């Protein structure tokens, strides 16, 4: 276990636990738990743009080794679209939920994806066209979802909020807005990351195991709550306060994606 890894426990008074050995020990209980990892900001460091991320070369094989130790009970649960997320970890393919839980590929290989309607295609084109002149704003087409990024143009946040709120009204009740780190997304409303975790747990090799969910952003709160409800554990990368000022449901904290990767490297050995 890396000495650099420092875990802070989320307590009511904000107290910190002395080291990350607790998390390492927890994740090392391979027969008892199944693990669910968010991608951006959790396994991989955040970057200026969605395509600017760098996957550390050892990460895919470390995840594969850890998955094997959990008997295959390791899944990715991400806001990314499934094909994009799969490419990040080639040649390995893990069970995965995409678009914040709306799409899912089970361990059996069964895939549940969403058909993109012509109306949603038109709405995405309208969003892109409205934001076309806004320097630094990036519209990410994710098929059945769309993200409006303002990391490089924070001054545009209010305008983008208004644009996406208007688009959400047009999209109707089958879609919902998902706020995240310097992004506002329009995504299928039909599932959350928490529901995706529960679906995984209904099937082998996850069934009979307790969940440990690891994430960093608002969308991950649903899977933190699911893990807590089911008697598992929830780990947030970051501190206990969320961007909207509320407190995370996660019961453990890690300081960075690098800290998590160090723990994974240690578990993979
Ligand atoms: O659920 P996740 O796996 O964490 O995905 C959440 C979103 O991640 C990406 O956006 C975020 O990461 C970008 C790259 O580091 C960063 O530039 C952006 O500001 C972040 O919001 C991705 O682009 C989204 O589609 C995901 O929903
Ligand atoms: Mg994330």
TrEMBL record:
It catalyses: alpha,alpha-trehalose 6-phosphate + H2O = alpha,alpha-trehalose + phosphate. Gene3D superfamilies: HAD superfamily/HAD-like, Trehalose-6-phosphate phosphatase related protein, domain 2. CDD domains: HAD_TPP. Its cofactor is Mg(2+). Its EC number is 3.1.3.12. It holds the Pfam family Trehalose_PPase. Keywords: Hydrolase, Magnesium, Metal-binding. It is an enzyme of class 3 (hydrolase). InterPro entries: HAD-like_sf, HAD-SF_hydro_IIB, HAD_sf, OTSB-like, Trehalose_PPase. GO terms for molecular function: trehalose-phosphatase activity. Pathway: Glycan biosynthesis; trehalose biosynthesis. NCBIfam families: HAD-SF-IIB, T6PP. Removes the phosphate from trehalose 6-phosphate to produce free trehalose. Belongs to the trehalose phosphatase family. This is Trehalose 6-phosphate phosphatase. It comes from Neorhizobium huautlense.
């Amino acid at each position: 276990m890396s000495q650099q890894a420092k875990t802070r426990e989320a307590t009511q008074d904000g107290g910190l636990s002395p080291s990350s050995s607790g998390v390492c020990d927890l994740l090392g209980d391979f027969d008892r738990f199944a693990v669910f990892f968010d991608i951006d900001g959790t396994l991989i460091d955040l970057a200026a743009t969605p395509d600017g991320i760098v996957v550390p070369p050892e990460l895919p094989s470390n995840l594969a080794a850890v998955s094997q130790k959990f008997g295959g009970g390791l899944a990715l649960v991400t806001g990314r679209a499934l094909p994009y997320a799969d490419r990040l970890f080639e040649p390995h393919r893990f069970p995965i939920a995409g678009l914040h839980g709306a799409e899912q590929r089970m361990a059996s290989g069964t895939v549940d994806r969403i058909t993109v309607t012509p109306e949603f295609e038109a709405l995405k084109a309208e969003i892109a066209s409205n934001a076309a002149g806004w320097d630094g704003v990036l519209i990410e087409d994710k098929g059945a979802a769309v993200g409006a990024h303002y990391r490089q143009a924070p001054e545009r946040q209010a305008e983008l909020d208004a644009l996406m709120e208007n688009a959400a009204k047009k999209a109707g009740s089958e879609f919902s807005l998902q706020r995240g780190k310097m992004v506002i997304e329009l995504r299928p409303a039909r599932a959350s990351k928490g529901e995706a975790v529960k679906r995984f747990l209904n099937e082998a090799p996850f069934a009979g195991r307790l969940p440990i969910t690891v994430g960093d952003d608002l969308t991950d709160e649903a899977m933190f709550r699911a893990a807590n409800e089911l008697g598992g554990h929830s780990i947030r990368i970051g501190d206990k306060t969320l961007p909207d000022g509320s407190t995370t449901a996660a019961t453990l904290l890690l300081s960075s994606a690098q800290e998590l990767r160090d723990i994974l490297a240690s578990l993979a050995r």
